[in-house]
Amino acid sequence: MTSDTRRRLVDAAWECVRKGGTTGATSRAITTAAEANLGAITYYFGSKDALLAEAVGEAIEVLVRPALRVLQDEALDPVSRLLKAVTQLQEAYEQAADDAPVYLEVLIQSRRQPELQRRVSEVFGEIRAMLSQQMAQLQAAEFLPDWVQPMAMAGLLLAVAQGVVLQTAIDGAGPSHAPMADQFARLLLASRAERR
Fold it and tell me: Which of 20, 99, 112, 193 is the most buried (most CB within 10 A)?
């Protein structure tokens, strides 16, 4: 077995989740798609749950990685970083819009699967930490008022982003993510205008 097998297993696991949800991602379906034997899952990951956690965590990271890179770009001021990160998330969502129901199902299922919950929490924790850092920098630059609690606001922003995914995945007649992202950016800029 090679590390190429490991990669194929992760890719196959995500494809199985995309096609049939976490319940459709059986060991047999994954190994068949990966052209690997059943023992490869145990060899590389210890369990199917650990494999699914890796595949899902990686898929979420791929989705948010461009925005996270922007949040780390010290060449931009904090406001520009945050607004550009919103744009990056919007573009990522457009590319992965068909997978929105899959992401929602995974988030719900993660409560019943400890490995999956651990991995999803790890990814969201990284996002919250970066957003919190941005909030603190915006506060230090006197862009945000003193009442803003950076970690709590970061959690709220993450919850809003998840809510947008839920809204657009379930309610096709509602507003799309693009105008909602625009409204968020305008609210952010309006909060600055009110301080001056």
Answer: 99
